[in-house]
Amino acid sequence: MAKLIYAAIASLDGYVEDETGKFDWAAPDEEVHAFVNDLERPIGTYLYGRRMHETMVFWETAGDGDDEPPVFHEYAEIWRAADKVVYSRTLQSVAGARTRIEREFDPDAVRQLKQDATADISVGGAELAGQAIGAGLVDECHLLLCPVVVGGGKRALPDGVRAQLELLDERRFQSGVVHLHYRVAAVGG
């Protein structure tokens, strides 16, 4: 059975976007980007909400020029090779290959996807990840904490969901970014 993994780059105070919706402070340097590429390589399917899809579809055509570092090109290839499921009630179509729309987040359908998948699955976007964590579907979390406090915005982890986590690994990068890898031990309680 495939694992469902939530990975996010967040501020030290736990936000993936600041109060104005910006996340430029989270842009990874080459060391962190290479690490993220290694995390993403085993992913066969990405589950996105509409807004996360609209952000990530950039990778559909990114990396074609020679002015970007090799880690940038590598991530574009990793992203393009995976299937994408976009959860949206409003989108009529989606840009990008290997992408389909689902109108509702259905925990049972995601359980079946995990059962049938031959590669791991990633859930992207804090709101969708919150639903998946709350439904007991997320197996692991990778949090990359940036050395910045933004004071508010969109939280990386959901309000109203309680989960017990087991620390599996940690890593510190030269930039001050810290990676924390957790297994979700139990939801609720």
Give structural notes.
The protein is of the alpha/beta class. The chain contains 5 helices and 10 strands; from the N terminus they run ββαβααββαβαββββ. The protein has helices at residues 30-40, 50-56, 70-81, 107-116, 126-134; strands at 4-11, 15-17, 43-49, 83-87, 99-102, 120-124, 140-146, 154-155, 163-172, 178-187. The strands form 2 sheets. It has an 8-stranded mixed sheet with strand order 5-4-3-6-1-7-10-9, sandwiched between helices. Strand 9 and strand 10 (178-187) form a beta hairpin. Helix 1 (30-40) packs parallel to helix 3 (70-81). The chain is globular. It starts with a strand and ends with a strand. The model has no long low-confidence stretch (mean pLDDT 94).
Structural class: alpha/beta
Which percent range describes the beta-strand content?
Answer: 25-35%
Q: Per the principal axes of the C-alpha atoms, what is the gross shape?
A: globular
Q: What profile does the largest beta sheet have?
A: 8 strands, mixed
* Radius of gyration computed on alpha carbons: 16 Å
Lateral strand order in the biggest sheet:
5-4-3-6-1-7-10-9
Distance linking N and C termini: 25 Å
Give the low-pLDDT segments. Answer: none
Strand tally is 10
Helical content, roughly? 25-40%
Order of helices and strands: EEHEHHEEHEHEEEE
The total of helices stands at: 5
Q: What is the mean predicted local confidence, pLDDT?
A: 94
